[in-house]
Amino acid sequence: MFLAAGIVVLIALPLVAPTYFLHLVIQILIWAFIYTAWSLMGRFGFVSFGHGAFMGIGAYVPALLWGYWDVTPWLGIPLSVMASVLLAVIVGYPCFRRKVVGHYFALVTLALSQVVLLSLIAARDITGGSLGFTQKTVGHSWYALQFPEKGYFYAIAVLLWLAGLWVWLWIDRGIGREALEAISEDEDAAAAVGIDVMREKMRVTVISAALTALGGAIYGQYVMYLNPETVSGISVSLQIVFAAILGGVYSLFGPSVGSLLTLSLTEGLRVWFGTNFIGAANTIYGILLVLCVIFMPQGVVGTLQLIRLRRRSQAKPAAAQDGVTAQDGVTAKGGVTAKGGVTT
Amino acid sequence: MDIYLVEAIINGILLGGVLALLALGLNLIFGVMDVVWIAYADIVMCGMYAIYFLYAQYGVPLPLAFIIAIAGVSGLGVLVHLLIIAPVLDSPPLNQLLATGGLLFFLQSFATLLFGTDFRNIGVRLPVLEIASMYVSFARLIAFAVGLIGAVALYFFLKRTYVGTAIRAIAQDREIVALMGIDQRRIYIVVSAIGGALAGLAACLLALQYDVHPFIGNTFGPVIFIICVLGGLGNMIGGFIAAFVISQIIAIGGYYASTELSYVLAFTFFIVLMLIRPRGLFAP
Fold first, then answer.
1. Which of B103, B267, B276 sits opposite A290 (nearest CB)?
2. Is residue A248 part of a domain?
3. Residue B130 dihedral angles phi and psi, to the nearest 5°
4. Nearest C-alpha neighbor of A124 from the set B23, B91, B261, B54
5. Per-residue pLDDT tens for A81-127?
6. Which chain A residues in 262-281 lie under 8 Å from chain B, judged by CB atoms?
7. Residue of A168, A205, A266, A319 with fewest CB within 10 Å of its CB?
């Protein structure tokens, strides 16, 4: 039912929605993809503040290659993804080898996103620095991956988003998930029962970094104007972390809901307040984030699922146990997180 | 040696004084409560705005404005603790990190909402000293001296007073301390107030040198974190030394290349060192 309705809405949307609305939906979908990519790591307690770095590389590499050497994004995007993966390996491997976890991991990755941000600003002769970089436009072109008509990017964004969900399910169904959950609970114990801690961590990190770079690249192709502050650095990293946590990192649709909520909230408040109150939207956003972390650390989707579960188990206590295992998306892990939220 | 390089090194040492003061506050809070205040630099920003409005807008004498700002930011620290940190004290560490991260968003955007994005200067022009044909900013010299005095005062407070001893005891073992008849919640509030006061003091010193704007926290914040982590989170002496290491990298890097590149260098240095010594430079 829900699935069919969802598909109909997704297909019908570009036909009926006004351009502005479609623009908003495209952004929500691309960010949803990036938040989902982050949550691939975040749900296992590897809280990275470095995804701003991967996104920055993803957005800037294809744009610069196209801008200076007319290299098609079809080549530029894979290159940017490879560059991000390389960076993820260079920093991630020693991090995991030396067991840099928790606060320390968060702060090392935070430094990484600052390195990329400041490098982009420092290379102002090439990137335009803080003034940003405007892509060379050629009109409608598959070669340059530029489409003035929003419908094309809508289709790309939907496919991208679905691909992100598919990767999530793929990891969720695989043996890797149990290994990763074991690692997030207790690394040494996981290693003791024969889990290749390094391999599992590296794999999920590389996938997460690659998808984030891909999301950044598509975002760059879509908006056509890049600014170091909007695609990299600590603020973008925090934006990613918060939206994902707000929606809920333990559920398939959690990060997407986070994207929907935050972007429509920002946009709604922006329209509501107009340009007289710059910052009003983010002020309310910040308050919501603090409240969310204090009162529902498992996010909007996670909390809703918990409430539903609780209702169900109250209604028919005998079937409660079935309810827990049969429930879509709420896994055994969901029960654990109800107590603690993001576990280290 | 090149005279400009010497000048850069001296300015680096002076910058280190302010950074060390900020790192001390952050380390004190971390050492006692095990919480990283991501928004620490933005609390400093609030203090800078307070000084700007008191002194430049309402004509309050500068020393009085400084005292009000320090008291105000100290109160803000207590408020932050009671409203945001206390409810998540028993949550996993990363939730605490995220809660103060939400505060960072809030403070930056609220400041934008109230004051706009203009750069504001309190308009105090301190003389520039010329020593052996090198130029040293007097404001920085004061900042360095006050930073050192603050550090020494904090040291004696922690070593010589009853409350200070209680604070050090909590940092060592949280469970036992309660058995010794120390009220942890009261100590947490005291520590938040001291952390806030140090942020307020740093705000006074920074207001003399820099323009205040809503995003000034982004300039200092990440640097303070890497200093604290390099020194070993919670290790105050380590953080104090690390502040001067990082400020030297920034100063000398800025001399040979550009400001941004010097920060890139500092952050890269930090990442590499973390991979070599994951628990900080001075970990046992």
1. B103
2. no
3. -115, 110
4. B261
5. 999 999 999 999 888 888 887 778 888 898 999 999 999 998 888 88
6. 277-281
7. A319
